[in-house]
Amino acid sequence: MSSTSISTYLNSYSKAAPLAVFRVFFGLLMLISIVRFALNGWIQKLYIEPAFFFSYYGFDWVQPPGEWTYLIFAVCGLSAIFISLGFKYRYAIITFFLSFTFIELMDKTTYLNHYYFISTLSFLMIFLPANTYFSVDAARNPILKAEFIPSWTIDAIKLLLFIVYFYAGLAKLNSDWLFQAMPLKIWLPAKYSIPLLGDMLQQSWVHFAFAWGGALYDLSIPFLLLIKRTRAFAFVLVVIFHILTRILFPIGMFPYIMIISALIFFDAGLHTRILNRISTFFKIDLDAFNNSEQYSFNSSISKNFSLSIVGAFFLFQLLFPFRYLLYPGELFWTEEGYKFSWRVMLIEKAGYANFKVVDPETQKRFYVDNTGFLTRFQEKQMSTQPDFILEYAHHLEQHYQNQGIENPEIYVESFVALNGRRSAPYIDPEIDLTTIKRNLKPKKWILPFNDEIKGL
Fold first, then answer.
1. Where are the beta strands (DSSP E) in 370-455?
2. Which pLDDT belongs to residue 299?
3. Are strands 365-367 and 409-418 parallel, antiparallel or unpaired?
4. Nearest to residue 456, comparing CAs of 175, 166, 161?
5. If 354 and its partner were Cys, which of 163, 299, 413, 418 is the partner (CB 3.0–4.6 Å)?
6. What is the pTM of this model?
């Protein structure tokens, strides 16, 4: 694409209705997510009751602040309301991004791809003029009000959704998923109690149909949504796919978020009709926002800054998922470079980790009861992920130093079963984990994976 074409595109405008609808529903769904989290008692269970929290490398300083954690969730929920209303939007979206991401960073035990998606999406929305139309801000500030916004500000959300879907599809092009139907062959038969579907989910051909269908869906759906002739059909597929995954798997609000997000691909006419319905219900004068004005950044510096940040953001999103290529070994086994790469529901691990503490002065040794330090959920996550195992070993080291053992040595006997394979030794039991520092280098103390999973 020539520089002239790029310049022409960056200076083209589209109706602001699609971004306004996206903002309204994004804020509403985020509010529902926060309220749902609180009503289920998960704030107390996940962020207050545990005595220890697993942290992301470099973010050890992010810890749940006890009962104040409720305040963080309240701030996050309130900012979601302001986003939906388009009230103090810039402050609201920044506050939401910071509070939601802080919650996500408090304990990596709770990592989910859709939490990461919400953080990345809310960061992107900081640089988009989502409050110039059908918002409290626009109603209060005529200078801000604009019926047309730069086309790239809408396309940016489309591109992020494209990456999420397409990269998820690429990740499914592996031998376990396509030729073994793993881990679906483990998960689906467990859903025998679902009416109508239960008996069918016991059939092997259904497992393979779901596996191949899921890969084909992820790889094709962004293209089908982009093409006007196939867009309506694609949206029907989006609804069916995500409702089905919601029935089969406990993945919270994510299916609804993806269904609503897919609306951004439709022309402005649909979004105008949606806003008309909302306006009629709440008795809002939609015509008050139709002024034929084009949104303009405060200055060329402001515009170039936003474009630079958004450009760097997408470069990161395109490259970061491939960092696993820098690590040796099987990705599904070591999980080095696995997170934050849109690899959705590809592995099922069952693990066992038994930690041995040795006092080098007395040569006394004993095994650790993990339930004295971790919740059941934390222990399950820890037992199959090497970075968790190492961090927990360092926590045990500090604990037993406080108990009077000056330089405790920590060893682990661990076994992991991956995607239906037999359980195999995972971490070198001869390595004193206290001698290993947390870093991003390859973990040579992970034992080799005695099999091969072909694919991306």
1. 409-418, 424-425
2. 81
3. unpaired
4. 175
5. 413
6. 0.95
